[in-house]
Amino acid sequence: MNFEGLDPGLGEYSPGLHGSLEPGLESSLDSRLDPALLQGVDLNPDAMAVPVSESVHLLEGMYSELHSVAAEVGIPVTSAHFDLQEELLWMGNHRGHASSFFGPTMGRYSSFQVHLTDDIRHMQSMDTGIVFLTKSNLKCLTRGGLVMFDYPMEEGADMHSLLLTDNNTLLLGGLQNYVAEVDLNTVQETQKFTVEVPGVAIMRQSSRFFFCGHTSGKVSLRDLRTFKLEHEFDAFSGSLSDFDVHGNLLAACGFSSRGLGGLSCDRFLMVYDLRMMRAVTPLQVHVDPLFLRFIPTYTSRLAIISQTGQCQFCEPTGLASLADVFHVNTVGQLLMSFDVSSSKQALAFGDSGGCVHLWSSAPEVSFNDYSRETELVLPCLVDSLPELDWNHELVPLSLVPLPLTSTEPLLSDWPSNLATPSPRRAPPVDPEILRMMKTVGFIGYAPNPRTRPRNQVPYKIKEVELEYDSYNQVPESPIGRDEEPHLYMVPKKYRKVTIKYSKLGLEDFDFKHYNRTLFAGLEPHIPNAYCNCMIQVLYFLEPIRCLVQNHLCQKEFCLACELGFLFHMLDLSRGDPCQASNFLRAFRTIPEASALGLILADSDEQTGKARLGRLIQSWNRFILTQLHQETQEQEGPQAYRGTSSSALGSTGESVIGRLFGCEVENSSLCRCGKETVRSSLTLLFTMHYPDGDFTEKVVQEYDFTEILKKSICLEQSTQAWCENCEKYQPTVQTRNIRCLPDVLVINCEVNSFKEAEFWKAQAEYAFNKALKKEATEPPKPKEPLDELGGVEGLTFDTCAEDMRHVWIPLCIRMRISKTHGLEVCSRPEAEEVRPHSEEEAGAAVVYDLVVTVPHILDARTGGNLVAHIKVGETYHQRKEGVTHQQWYLFNDFLIEPIDKTEAAQFDVSWKVPAIIYYAKRNYHSKYDLRIKNPIEASVLLTEASLARKQRKSHATFIPLMVSEMPQPGDLVGLDAEFVTLNQEEAELRSDGTKSTIKPSQMSVARITCVRGQGTNEGVPFIDDYISTQEQVVDYLTQYSGIKPGDLDAKISSKHLTTLKSTYLKLRFLIDTGVPKSVKRQYVLKDQVIDTVYLFHMPRKRMISLRFLAWYFLDLNIQSETHDSIEDARTALQLYRKYLELSRAGQDEFRKVLKGLYEKGRKLDWKVPESDSTDGQGSPKGAAAFSSVLGL
C-alpha cells in the first residue's frame, strides 16, 4: 500500500490515548459518566482504562470518548445507527424502544416505541424516515415518531438483517431459507430469493456483489440483479460474527468449532482478495473480535471490537500492534451493538446496561460530510406588549389597557344558559375492580385488571349520549368488544382459574366454592399443568384407570406407574384437589416429550404464548403412544392383571392397543401401476378438512360423519419413491381400516382461521336444519331424563336453540362392509342397538360421545384448556353411591355438571375444539376391571443405594426384618425434609401487604421412619435421601440438614434412592391400614398425627418442634442443623407425652397448653441456651414435616 505524500506525524500516536497500557497512571472513572449507573457494580480497578486527559491534543485519525448517555438503564442496546441524512445517532433496545440523539453533545431528540415486545435488530435511515426491523415486523417511522408504514412478515419468520439497495428496495434476511425483497414505494413484497444455506444474519453491498453472511460461518457473493450465487467463502467452522467489505478486500470475524459442539472466538481475522477470489494471510489480533468495520480515512484501517469493550485498529494486510488497543469504558457491561458514521469521524457503541458511547477523532465532530439541517422543536414564544415612551408627545394613550368599569353587557358576552359548565361524567368503575377492592380507611386498593390501555378511558361518542346509569358491561361499539372480549365471550366457569394464596398457603382457600362434587380436581400452579384436562380424561376411562393402577415396573421414570399413583389419589379423594407434580416430574424427563416441544417454559405458560390447542393434541398422541410402549414392555407376574395370557402373548399387544388401536392398511399406487401395501397400528385419527377458501360467503355443506370418514379413510397424492421406476414419482396414497377401535380418538386440528371458519359455517348449517325440523314437528314436553337420576336444574330434552354452535353428533354408527368399506352416519342417541358379536361381519357399531376437550380463547388470561367428560356409572357408584351417567366440566380444580349439548357446542370465537373421544356402548364388558394392589411387603426390605461412595459402615438405619413388618395399629415416627426447586413469586401491593403469585416449588429430599414399638423402638428402618435430576435453587440446609452433593449419586455418601422407591415404601405403610381419605402428600388424615396440631390452640400460632421438645421433653434439638432421625424420634416421644397428658382430662390439658403459650411469649419462642444458633426455632412448614404414622 502506498503511503507517500502523507504527513509523517499521523503515525505518531499519543501515549495518552492508550492510558490503560501506560504504567504509573492511577485508574479512575470518566467524570462525564452518570454516577447513578455505577450503583451496585463491582469494578476491578486493575482492568479499567484511564480516561483521556483534557489537555491531550487529539490527532486526526485517532479516536477517544466524547460523550456517553444512558437511554434506558438496564435495557440492552441491541442496535446503533448513525443517520445518513442528519446529525442524529439512533439506538434501539431489547424492549422495542428507539431513541435519537442530536450532534456530539448527545442531546435527546426523539424517543418512541417501535414494537411492544420484540427487540430492534436493525435500523436504516432514509430521506423520509427511519426503517426498523424486528423479529417479525418491518416498520418505518418519521424522525419524530409518526408511523409511515407497518409491514408484518410471514408467520414463523425470524428476521435479523436488512439492506437498502440502490433502486429503493429493501432486502430482508433472517434464519429462514430465503431473502425477501420489499419495494418501499408500494410497501409490497416483490420477490423472494431462495438461499442455499439458511440463516442470513448480515448483508453488505459493493459495486459488484451482494454479500450475505450466514450463521453457519459462510459468506456468499451474489449477483446484484438476479441474486444468483457467484462465489462462496467458508470463513469459519463454527459461526460468523461480523464482516465488512472495502474495495477489493473482505474481512470477517467469527467462531470456530471445538469439541462436543462448543464454539470459541477465533482471534484470526479471515481476509479475502475479491479480485482473485481467494484468502490472503489471516490477520491475528489481540482481542476477541465481535464487530469489525473498515474505516478508510487515509488507509484501509480495520476497527475490531470485542464484547468486553476492547477496540483495536490495524491494517488488513499488516501485523496488528498491541499499542493500537484501547478500551471503551462500559463500567462492566458488555457491548451489544456498534456503528461507524459515514464521515468516519465518529464511532458509536451500545452496551447491555442501556448506555450509548460516542467516540470521535476530533472535538468538533460531524456525522456526515453534508448533513441537512435538523428540525428542532421551537421554544414557546409569548407575544409581549410594546414599550411606550412616556416622554414622547405623540404617544396615544389609547394603547394603555384599562380595566372595564362599566356594567353594560359586551358584544362578546355569551348567554348564561350557554356558558354553564357541563363536564362529561366519568364512566362507572370496572366491576372486577370493585369485586377485588380492599378498603383501608377511606382508600380502596385493587389490582389492575388490565382490561384497557393505561391512562385511557373509552367514551361513547354519539349524538344523543346515553345515561351512564344504564351503562352495560358489554361495550356497544365493536372496537370496545375487541378491547374486552372476556367480558362478553367467555363464561365465568370456563375462564382460567387461579389460586389466591395467603399467609397459610392453601389452608384457607375455599376449593368447595369451585367444586361441590366428590370428584377430585387438579391444581394448576405447577409447571406444565396444561395437561390436567387430559389426565382427567384418562382417569375416567375405566380400562385405563385399572391398567395403570395394576401396573408396576422397575423404571425410575415410568408414566404408567406415575399415572397409577395419581389415579390412586383421585380414587381416595372426596372432593379435595390433588397435584400431578410427580407425574409431571417424570414427564419432563422423557426425551420424546422434550423433542416434541411438549415441555413448556414458565414464561410461555404465564404470558399465554403457547398454542395450547395444538399442544394438547400433540400431548394426546404422545401419551397414548408412551403408555402403549410402557405397558407393552411389561411381562411376567407384574403384567396387567385384567387380561388373559393370550391377549398379552408374544404379539406384544397392550390394553392401550386393544382400547384405542385400529389396524390400518396403507397402499401407495404409482402411476406406473406399482402398488405397495403395508399394515400398521394407529391409536388416533386426525381430522382433514376439504381444501378451499372458507372465508367466502358460500361454503359447501358437509356432515360431520362425512368429514370423519374421509379423515379415517384418507386419500391424498404425494411424491414418493417407486422401486419400479427407481425415482420419486407422483403416487396416490390410500388408507383403509380393517377393524373398529373400542374408543375412537380424534384430533380436530382446528389450528388456524381457515379451519375455524369451516367449523363455524358447518355449525350454522346444522343449526338451520334443526330450526326447520323443529318447525315441522310438534313440540315435545321438556322432562328430566330418568336414567340420569333427575339431576336438579338440568333438563336434557334437546330443542333447536340448544343446537346452536353444535356440529358434532352425540352418537354415531360405524360399520365396515365388504362392498362399501367404512360407513359412518349419525343417529339419535336414545335409539337402541341390537347387540352383535365381535365376529359378526358387517355389524353396525354405535359410538357415544364421551369426551370433548376445547381450547378456551381468553385475551385476558392467555387462554386455557378444559374437558367435558361423560362420567360413567361406576364412578358415581364409588363416590356418591348412586348409579347414573352425567356430563361434567373439568377446569383444573373447578368441576361442574353440565348439559350434554353444552359438551358438543363450540363457539369458535372463544371455544375451539381440540380433541374428541367416541366410545362403543358397553365396551367395558370386554375388560377385567378388578384392581389388585401391586405393592408388596418386599419394598421395605434391603435395597442398594444409588450413591457410588455409600458404604455399609455409614448406614444410618436398619431395615425391617420379615418378623418386624408393621401391623394395623402400629406406630411409626416419620420426618420429611424438603429442598426448593423454584423460589416463590410474590408482589407487593400498594397498601404494603404481600401477595403470593406463585408459591415456591418444593421437592422431598429425605424421608426417615423410625420404629414406634418393640425392643428397637426409635431405631430408623427408612432413611432415604431422594435423588433428583432437577436443579435445586435452595437446599434450606439450616432447616433441612441437606447439603449440596447429598442428592448427587456421583459424590453423595448417603443412602440415595429414587422418589418412586421411597413412595412405594410409604404407600405400603399407608395401605396396611384402612384407607378413608387422602391428603396431597399421599398420606391419610386419620393415620397421620402431626405434632404441630397436637399442641396447638385455636387461632394461635404454630409452635416449632424444637420448642416443644425443650418444653415437654427437656431436649435440645436442632442446635446447629436439623437431623431427620432426631426429629422423627422427637415426634414419637411428643406423641407419647400427649397421650400421658390427655389421660388427666381436657381441662387439665388445656391448662398445660396455656402454660406452654405463656412461656413461649415470655421467651419470644426462643429456646434459652447460650450457644444457640437457631434463634426462632425451625420453620418446619417450609422445609420439614414431622409426624407420627398410625397404621
From TrEMBL:
Domain USP: 520-921
HAMAP family hit by this protein: PAN2
Cofactor binding annotation: Binds 2 metal cations per subunit in the catalytic exonuclease domain.
Main location class: cytoplasm
PANTHER family hit by this protein: DEADENYLATION COMPLEX CATALYTIC SUBUNIT PAN2, PAN2-PAN3 DEADENYLATION COMPLEX CATALYTIC SUBUNIT PAN2
TM segment ranges: none
Notes on activation and inhibition: Positively regulated by the regulatory subunit PAN3.
UniProt entry keywords in alphabetical sequence: Cytoplasm, Exonuclease, Hydrolase, Metal-binding, mRNA processing, Nuclease, Nucleus, Repeat, WD repeat
Free-text function comment from the UniProt entry: Catalytic subunit of the poly(A)-nuclease (PAN) deadenylation complex, one of two cytoplasmic mRNA deadenylases involved in general and miRNA-mediated mRNA turnover. PAN specifically shortens poly(A) tails of RNA and the activity is stimulated by poly(A)-binding protein (PABP). PAN deadenylation is followed by rapid degradation of the shortened mRNA tails by the CCR4-NOT complex.
GO BP, sorted A to Z: mRNA processing; nuclear-transcribed mRNA poly(A) tail shortening; positive regulation of cytoplasmic mRNA processing body assembly
Record's protein name: PAN2-PAN3 deadenylation complex catalytic subunit PAN2
Disordered, as annotated region: 1-28, 1167-1191
Similarity comment: family membership: Belongs to the peptidase C19 family. PAN2 subfamily.
Source organism, top-level taxon: Eukaryota
Notes concerning its domains: The linker, or PAN3 interaction domain (PID), between the WD40 repeats and the pseudo-UCH domain mediates interaction with PAN3. Contains a pseudo-UCH domain. This ubiquitin C-terminal hydrolase (UCH)-like or ubiquitin specific protease (USP)-like domain is predicted to be catalytically inactive because it lacks the active site catalytic triad characteristic of thiol proteases, with residues at the equivalent structural positions that are incompatible with catalysis, and it cannot bind ubiquitin. It functions as a structural scaffold for intra- and intermolecular interactions in the complex.
Cellular component, GO annotation: nucleus; P-body; PAN complex
GO molecular function terms noted in the UniProt entry: metal ion binding; nucleic acid binding; poly(A)-specific ribonuclease activity
PROSITE patterns cross-referenced by the UniProt entry: USP_3
Gene: PAN2
Residues annotated for a divalent metal cation binding in this entry: 975, 977, 1127
Subunit structure: Forms a heterotrimer with an asymmetric homodimer of the regulatory subunit PAN3 to form the poly(A)-nuclease (PAN) deadenylation complex. Interacts with PAN3 isoform 1/Pan3L and isoform 3/Pan3S. Interacts with ZFP36.
